[in-house]
Design goal:
two-stranded antiparallel ribbon, globular, alpha+beta, single chain, two-stranded antiparallel sheet
Length: 110
Amino acid sequence: RRHTRFKCDWSSDVCSSDLALDEMTREDMRHLLVSLCERNRATVLFVTHSIPEAAFVSDRVAVMTSRPGRIHSVIPVGLPRPRRAELEDDAAFFAVETTLRAALRDGAGR
């Protein structure tokens, strides 16, 4: 079962989504979101539990602590734009994922 809710209204600068997707569709959606944001020069607040998604979509990632949820750290991503799907196979992308994962573990006290 796939649950998808995605709405963008670029005229009011609002884009919201509530997506529960398989991994391949999720990847397609993040590439679409980045493309739309680049085309519309939009700023997006994006909430995700996916480290690859955070690394691909973001210019900086706020890593939250466990309960109570507070910002543990803000990590600059530093990957070049425009972002293309091939970036996810690059060593620089893996390095960002590794940095985010370490910050997430540290914020969770692990």
